[in-house]
Write a structure and sequence with these properties.
- By secondary structure, the chain is α/β, with parallel strands linked by helices.
- Helix 3 crosses helix 4.
- The protein contains six helices and eleven strands.
- The chain folds into two domains: 64 residues, no CATH class; 115 residues, Metalloproteases ("zincins"), catalytic domain (Zincin-like, 2-Layer Sandwich), CATH 3.30.2010.
- The radius of gyration is 20 Å and the shape is globular.
- The strands form three sheets. The protein has a four-stranded mixed β-sheet with strand order 1-2-4-3, covered by helices on one side.
- A hairpin with a 2-residue loop joins strand 7 and strand 8.
- Helix content is 37%, strand content 27%.
- The structure holds zinc ion.
């Protein structure tokens, strides 16, 4: 028996999934404004329909947002705040013609970018993303080492990717885990939460009762991280 069905409300196609969730969750995904709803298993169909009908305006608004390309940053300049591991760091750009363009974090609150003043926005973004990637590479291996004996699984490989709609993924046959580069911006517990989620898939590939029971056992506070990440996705990040 499938837990998924689709419905059409006010001309909008909605994918409905019954899950072990506490309340109705509505998500609208870029790039095409796909609408996914997860509903508690016991909630009646008419209650779900009523709730969705009252949310149609909001859904349409979210669809318009989702289908609009994310506006790229217009600049990366001194005075901006950039999120790093859940902290907002004040960026200072130093005009430096000597040496390699680079990013440094001199203390907990500051981020320094050294590059020639002529450096294009694209190049600045690439430098920042490389730095974010480097930060994650510095943190992920230790987390995998920590969780492998706890979960009794082996991760063959991990990769960091730009992903628009997912925080992570796990190929259970190759035991390869992908993590979203954006996680570098979120609190460390969020990175750990996504990694553990993907590693638990090595024990249970599906999002079923067994999966959530396992997650609840190993990360009882996971819901908190999930909420933080969810609000990030809702704000178009990534
Ligand atoms: Zn999953």
């Amino acid at each position: 028996m499938s837990n998924n069905r689709s419905l059409l409300l006010g001309g909008i196609a909605i994918e409905l999934q019954r899950k072990r969730v506490k309340r109705l969750n509505v998500r609208v995904y870029p790039p095409d404004g796909r609408v996914c709803v997860s509903a508690p298993v016991h909630l009646s169909h008419s209650v779900i329909e009523q709730a969705l009908l009252s949310k149609l305006d909001w859904i349409r608004h979210q669809q318009q947002r989702a289908c609009r390309p994310v506006p790229p940053r217009q600049h990366i300049v001194t005075g901006e705040y950039h999120p790093v591991a859940g902290e907002q760091l004040l960026l200072t750009v130093f005009d430096s013609v000597q040496g390699r363009a680079r990013i440094e974090r001199p203390d907990a609150q500051a981020l320094h970018l050294f590059c020639p003043a002529s450096t294009t926005l694209e190049r600045r973004i690439a430098l920042l993303n490389d730095w974010y990637r480097h930060q994650l590479h510095g943190r992920i291996p230790a987390l995998i080492e920590k969780w492998q004996p706890i979960l009794r699984v082996q991760v063959a490989q991990y990769a960091i990717r730009h992903m628009r709609t997912r925080w992570g993924s796990c190929n259970t046959s190759t035991r390869r885990i992908c993590l979203n580069l954006e996680l570098a911006k979120y609190p460390p517990a969020c990175l750990e939460y996504v990694l553990v989620h993907e590693m638990v898939h090595l024990l249970e590939p599906g999002h079923n009762q067994r999966f959530y029971t396992l997650m609840g056992q190993v990360l009882p506070d996971g819901q908190q991280q999930k909420e933080i990440l969810k609000s990030g996705m809702d704000h178009g990040l990534p």
